[in-house]
Amino acid sequence: MQNNSYTLSSSLMLQNIDDESLLMDTNTQLFYELNESAAFMFSVMQKHTLFSDVVAELTNYFDAPQELLFKDLYQFAMSLAEQNMLEIHD
User: What pLDDT digit, counting tens, does each position of 63-81 carry?
Assistant: First the structure.
């Protein structure tokens, strides 16, 4: 999956309110609270379309092994995909 591309739903908005990051799906009017790492990961995902590019940027930001960052990205991407907020392409 690391070489796959993805498309984020155009209905997503990330809002930072005080110390909270909320991801809103304007299609469903549902809010999802993101922790600091997930909010940063989402903001990086908005700039790219390849998982490998996201992992590369995360590796530059976090002091963590690339494999761990990819695992976290994969879990986050799958949770977005389950809610129809992200489409993964082969």
Answer: 999 999 999 999 999 999 9
> How far is C-alpha 28 from the chain's CA centre?
18
pLDDT at 1 over 80: no
Nearest to 38 by CA among 4, 88, 87, 74: 74
24 closest CA partner among 6, 48, 8? 8
Domain ranges of the chain: 35-89
How far apart are the C-alpha atoms of 11 and 23, rounded to whole Å? 10
